[in-house]
Amino acid sequence: MAAMGAGWGSLILRWLKFNAVGGLGIGVQLVTLALLKSAFRLDYLAATAAAVEMAILHNFFWHERFTWADRTHGRGAVRLLKFNLTTGAFSLTANLLLMRVLVGNFHLQYLAANCLSIGSCSLLNFVISDQFVFRHG
Question: Which of 34, 93, 102, 119 is deepest in the core (most CB within 10 A)?
Fold first, then answer.
């Protein structure tokens, strides 16, 4: 029974670390999106795609060194590829689809829409990262 409690405690701590990294990643994504849309006049969907990829790279770097540091011995390039092909692809696809609906159809302000898009991806990204990308052993 104690082992089960320790497992839950470890999972909760990892979830908190994941969200701390993700919170910083949200900042990276929103700043990149605002810069690309406002300063460089990119279309909101192109700017969203580039901003999501910036956040993906940021988050991977910090998940390697903080969230799953206990599981990241060797094969970093393989993990980066797995991260981009799973959570990255999901985040990119979901963000673009949600942005198209929220901004394109409902005319929501693009930064607010992006915050909603990011939040909708979080739980699934954690599960995929924990069970596949940074799987123990």
Answer: 102
